[in-house]
Amino acid sequence: MIGYAMAITKASAGVPAVPAAEAIMAPELSWAGLILLLPLLSLILCGLCAAAKVTSKLPAVITATALAGAFVTSVFLYLNYQPPGDVIPLLDWMNISWGDGQFESFSANFALYIDSLSLLWIMFVTGLGTLITIYASEYMEPDLGKGYSRFFAGVSVFLFAMAALVLSDNLLMLYLGWEGVGFASYWLIGYYYQRPAAVAAAKKAFIVNRIGDLGLALAVYLIWTTFGTVQYDELMTVLEDGDYRAAFEGWTVSAIPFLLMLAAFGKSAQLPLYVWLPDAMEGPTPVSALIHAATMVTAGIYLVARTYPLFLLEPVSLHVVAWVGGLTALLAATIGMAQYDIKRIMAYSTVSQLGYMFLGLGVLTTYGAAYHVFTHAFFKAVLFLTCGAIMHGFAGQLDLRHLSGLRHMRGWRITAWTMFIGCLCLAGFPFTSGYFSKDAILAEAFVTQGPGFEILGWIAIFTAGLTAYYTFRVWFRVCAGPVAYEPGDELHGEDDHGGEFHPHAPRLAINGVLVLIALGALVAAVPYFMSNTADEHLAGGWVADMVHDSTAREGIPGFHGDAHAGHGDAHPTIFGADPHVAMYWISGTVGMIGLLFAAWLHLWRRSQADAIKAWLLHRAWIGWLPRAMERKWYVDEVYHALIRAPLWILGHILYAFDRFIIDGLLVDSVARIPRGVARCLQPLQSGAVQAMAIVMVGGAAIILLLMALFMQFGWFGGQA
Amino acid sequence: MTDRLWLLIPELVLLAGAVSCAILGVSRSVAIRRLLPAATVVTLLVALAASVFVYVPGAVEAATGPGAVPLPWLGRAVIPITVVVGLVLVLVQAGFVDRVYEMAVASGRTTFDPLRSARGEYYVFFLLSMAGLMLTCAAPDLIWLFLALELTSLPTYVMVAMSRDDRRAQEAAMKYFYLGAMSAAMFLFGFALLYGATGTMVLGDMQAVLAGRMADTGSIGSLAVIGLLLSVLGIGFKLAAVPMHLYAPDVYEGAAAQVTAFLGFVPKASGAIALMLILSLTGWTEEGGSLPPAVLITLWLMAVLTMTLGNIGALLQSNVKRMLAYSSISHSGYMLIGIIAGPGAGFAAVLVYLLAYGLGNTATFAVLASLRAGDHEVESIDDLAGLREKHPGLAWAMAISAGSLLGFPPLMGFWGKLLLFIAGVASGHLVLIVIAGINSAISAWYYLRLVALPLTGTPSSTSGSIERRPYEGPRMAAVACTVLLICLPLLLGSIMSQASDAVVTVDELRNSAGVDE
Prior knowledge:
In chain A, 67% of the residues lie in helices and 4% in strands. Chain A is built from 27 helices and seven strands. Chain B is 76% helix and 1% strand. Chains A and B meet through strand 2, helix 26 and helix 27 of A and helix 10, helix 12, helix 13, helix 15 and helix 20 of B.
């Protein structure tokens, strides 16, 4: 505790406790630019495929190859990696200066900032991107020759923008990547653009994200005016020296983390901006898995981790991050419990898990947050991809009331059991990857001192129980029990065999990818046990190593060496035990309780579950609770009433104002002035060459005369 | 002298190219005559390649030796800019030159007569004018400067006259020629006074004399000031700066759109460069010195009046070409800001702006050149309404190039304007920048019409009859310019460093060469 308290007090005095690492310019590593170049190339080739109306799977092959190349490049980069990292210049972009001072220049180049944090992110982004592209090559089959090229072009745009976001060496390039992934997300959510729901969802995602983007734009601007740079290495040096503009220190230093937070909450779907993510499930499922579960939505976590020293300057900001994260986790979990659409349940669970990650950031465990991002990327990808396989095979059926017993059906066993692995990890079943990464966050909530962090810790533990319940509610309903199913509403001719529906089971590409990612989800527990190389005081294995060499190093358990390593009496306890140890037991128990509840209600006594629900709904004192949960706590309705309707009215008022007052009175009359002047001058433009010559020479003569008089009499306070 | 010749290799290449075009143009074979645009392109590319080899650090001797010019490395940026814009300009011309006659020959209605064919001559004039522009930046003395300026302008008079079989083109050419001659007389008179004041024609010596006088008496003397003023006003004609701007609308409207695109860039660039050279004569450098107040006030007035009158004039026009003519006047006003901001950042910003403006301007005229309304060119701006429905590519090119000319981020025009404004603020001319900002806002009124009408307008009966011309050149030029306007900002860093390297003064170059040795 003392260690963390010290970190905050020292940091808030404007001096981060630990000197920032000086990254080294490494132009010889410029082959790393391939990570950006390959997706771009694949975008161009997919565009050409679309233009040439290719009807084969060529676009998928191109994209998968390019992304695999990017993944291999990232791995090479990791193998070449030496702390404290490199800056790889690619292309000069902007170097503007109007003086020699600290605040009289602006530079932002296309350069890559390679430290352990960006490497961690880029490896799972490109790796999962490759696998999900392979999955999508089979999933998108019905669209072959129609939207197939468009889909993979969108995936390429996304990977390009995401790589730019993660690898950029300055906030401006990060901003470009940030906008780029937002655009790619809009593109892909609205992929089925003939469906009004998809178009509305795409618009909703885009508009809600704009609110966050506004925060990011303002934050970049304020960071530049306050610290005089937007490049990470320079920014870290400035923070270390503490020589930023004192005049602004008062409010900008406090405002910056809140603006960054707004951006992160928009992109990573936290309260109050989470509403777009569940709707984003209108996009094709591989997109949901890649963008809206594993990678893009973690950009907010990345942003906060990347700018962590700025958050440490304003401790209140981290408290807000922790509380928003914790409350989002709880709210989304309660909504997820009452939904029937399995993809939406997974979407709410993503929102909930992202809440955990922010909680981790807020309670000073960047390591826990990063580790949870890492494990979540795998197990949530598996869960979405299995949902996608089911949706694909059952003609769009996603309602868990109409699906049952998948594990007994031929061809569906791989889907059922890989989903089981994903569910175990998500539920935090002991010794799965999700168990270790979630514990790191939960325990730290009890260790770190902060306003109500202990309450927050109990909320998070309760939410862990809810998570286990709703996760296994899905699995027990869909995969266990007697075989029963109804097709969805997207029947294709091929499914219809003489009036009887036959689900078509996934084939090689889907099954292969499911198995690989499920294995990844299991193996993701291994880094926890790998030894630390960077610092012997560290706990948490390889991921802690990866966070240690980065800007987010302040939030690693044991980073502040001795104070924490020998915490002893200063360390808070739960039931008299060290939270780190106690949490293994507590969260394991809570998870098992949730799982058993799910098994009781949805496997062994399904009819009883319905009876209980009916009973609850008919009791006035409690009936509102399940109803509100099913209706998502009426958040959409509240937003509609509080924001959309007033905006709609305001828009009409402003339109009328603009139309009649501004346009009618102001603009037209102002525009009349120059036009009037121009009319007066027009006779001079008679077009006769003599008149022109006279005006030209006359004008020159007047100027000469004025200047001669000026020199003679020293007008305007000067002379020749 | 051989050292100086070394620096002139790119210009010599253009001259050689012009001679070969003259020969190719009178060939009886249609296939050979069709090679002319390609020959022009090759000439420009060879000149570009030559400039890369010419402006190497090893050529410092040539640049700083006897008879050195005040800004010896100017060609280093001006030649690439000229070639890039020149290449798209060739595309705009391709296929249109002497089309009527060539079609008559092809259909067998007449037999080919070298005396009547003008295609070869046209490209000769094209290349000669470009050579004049490049020679301007290499001028070591006033006579050279005068000849280079006239070499830039004289071919353009003929090009206007040749541009179409139309009385309006003849009229425009006559006006352009007479008024151009008048302005030449004006700046020649200024040059004569400068010679009288200093006793030398060589720019380097003249700079030394004036700097010495400045150090002794605190002023360069009234005669030299009046000489400078006359030169600035006369050269203002090339830029179409107030009060020498009156010809621009008539000439731009009278000439065919292809030639107007050329007029909008080449003479303007040579005028801006000549101004930089003439003004550095006063010993005005990045480190110190300043313009004589009378010259500064004149330039300031010219800048303010040019951008304001240009923009106000453009507001009134319903004719697209006249509107663009007025708007190009206002762009000269913006460029004068960079000239006022001075050597170093200001001049470098002018060079970047020339590139941005040249591409944007060429793109808008290329769009106009690739459209026709019946037998005529597109006249009214309303004819562009709803262009997107039939020609989406051209509509987008028009919208993006107008956006760039307006200075809409992140297009190239935005960065050009931003650099000019930054240079202006850094040199302390805040009032000028505020006026320029207001002018930019006014220009949004008419530029946004060019963005909105083609993209969102509904086609009317007249705009529905707009067709594409049968040749591809202008369309390709419009697309190429548009792509460049979007993509060049990505290379902004290297463009800016090239531009600031190019405006290094001879003293700085000598100093750094001395340090190296």
